[in-house]
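Quick one, probably user error.
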């Protein structure tokens, strides 16, 4: 297991950032976590265009 003591920020990864995954990633980022996301289709990983 890697030693992650060099950073004070917890990092998490999200696989599949559809409707529910994107909301979860936003909430984790708002809580101060370093969030990295991967999605098979780039368009789903992008934020929606402004209305």
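Nope, works fine. Designed sequence:
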């Amino acid at each position: 297991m890697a030693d992650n003591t060099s950073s004070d920020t917890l990092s998490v990864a999200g696989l599949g950032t559809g409707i529910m995954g994107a909301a979860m990633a936003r909430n984790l980022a708002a809580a101060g976590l370093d969030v990295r996301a991967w999605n098979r289709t780039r368009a789903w990983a992008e934020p929606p265009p402004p209305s």
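The mean pLDDT is 77.
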